[in-house]
């Protein structure tokens, strides 16, 4: 009976947590819907008198709004990509590993299993990176998210504002969302400012529209400042080919810690996120190269790392295992164990 109550309570808490995790997203959606009403109806249709100005404002606003909402949608609903089956321990290997009580033997077992996998990063102690929750050898740059309860390829962070884990499958969309968010706020602030001044000086009538226009400028400026800082930080990360987790905790390779281990040069670093075809850089469609399981490394020559020589997938190579602490940024929280 007591066990049944505990299971019911645990299930209820999980359900509450799942519902509450959507609250930040709901807040953002409500703010965006209000901003749409305030800009389109209260500013453009009520406050702006010039028909030409109305049309120009509305055309540019809706063009930015479409890309802003599209990238936000993709950031929320693009599922994090998990390691494929070859990185999971087989049933036999899992039993052998769990039944073995000697840590040094377990470590050697993981080394032997990882020899067939394209893994080069290690734990701080030099061991193969292994997730004891998902029972898999972690690919390079893969980490376990305690919020999503799974290992995520090229995990960057878990973001509560999109209620999703940002990683290989959706990092491009997240960056585009930040970029279009900054542009959205900047456009609203610059076009609203002159009418804000007129309302402030009492040159325009309309109490209701005045409130919406004044508050619209305040909200746009507030979000612009926080978003431009976050976007600038992620631009820096992309230019160095780092994730947020790698910026906090230097990745360890077989040769030791190397903070620039994945840095291929500015242009190639950008291509690692956005792809080679520049016409897809501004559009939220998947164009990141590779499958998220292995990445080019600057410290290896072509004979050691086939990814530097061509685009063929890995077939054979080395090892992996390491956990990072939680970290956070102004609008994104990294939760990985």
UniProtKB/TrEMBL annotation:
GO molecular function: protein-cysteine S-palmitoyltransferase activity
Pfam families documented for this protein: DHHC (PF01529)
Enzyme class: transferase
Keywords: Acyltransferase, Membrane, Transferase, Transmembrane, Transmembrane helix
EC annotation from Swiss-Prot or TrEMBL: 2.3.1.225
Main location group: membrane
Bias-annotated ranges (Polar residues): 327-337
InterPro entries named among the record's database cross-references: Palmitoyltrfase_DHHC, PFA4/ZDH16/20/ERF2-like
Compositionally biased spans, kind Acidic residues: 312-321
Subcellular location field: Membrane
Domain Palmitoyltransferase DHHC residues, every copy: 129-247
Protein topology in the membrane: Multi-pass membrane protein
Domains: entry comment: The DHHC domain is required for palmitoyltransferase activity.
Family from the record: Belongs to the DHHC palmitoyltransferase family.
Protein name: Palmitoyltransferase
